[in-house]
Amino acid sequence: MLSRTNQPVLSPPPAIETSRHSLFVDFDGTLVPLVDRPDLVRADTELLELLTALGTRFPRRLALVSGRSLQQLDHMIGPIAHDIAMAGSHGAEVRRDGHLVQPPRPDGLDAAITDVRGYGAGHPEMIIEEKSHGVAMHYRVAPILEEPVNRRAYAIAERYGLEVQPGKMMVEIRGPGWDKGEAVAALMAEPPMAGTLPIVIGDDLTDEPAMQLAGGMGGFGIIVGGGRETAARHALADVGAVRRWLWEQAA
Description:
This protein has helices at residues 45-57, 70-77, 109-121, 146-160, 180-188, 208-216, 239-250; strands spanning 21-25, 62-65, 85-88, 93-96, 99-101, 127-130, 134-138, 163-167, 170-174, 197-202, 220-224, 234-236. It is of the alpha/beta class. It folds into two domains: 20-102 and 178-250, Rossmann fold; 109-174, Alpha-Beta Plaits. It is globular and about 50 Å long. Mean pLDDT is 94; it is low at 1-5.
């Protein structure tokens, strides 16, 4: 992977046309800041107003694509979550117009969660986030745990035939066979997104398959923060910059 000093400087994204584009936006680290306690995150009033405005400007062509489960997103966002397309659990769960498509709960996940809980009992500074199709181990409040937590995650995943998804100051154990790119492709395959150009905004490695797909379909990806090799063609500095750019598109 390229070092930070070798990264090209990406330009801010241009304005997009509401009639020609569909928007796919990550949640944590993109619409809301990353925090030490991910379980306490809630959408603020300004964000709810922004999502409402975007939903009006991009009717049925706005989607949240998150590593969170749909149950978590519904809790954090509230009723508006049912008015826009949603892809949760890194693309495993896809919901649009009230229709939900998802694979069976991964075999071995419950046993993996039990093992993660056992490990977490000895490391109370590690935050465990249980999801519909995975379990995340957050070490943001104790960065010294990065190596041992990742080592344990890979061991548990191998034991139960699961996969490891690295992230920012966390690692997740989840079922195999899906990613955010597949979720975006599924949403883009049907009207009214079909025939439009996808714009994908995200900050983490899990967003890369979706940004790569967007570029291949004539759209583009927008990385939040940058500092690593990416398929994105444009960049925004932080959550505040993302919201300002989205407000411009919603105007």
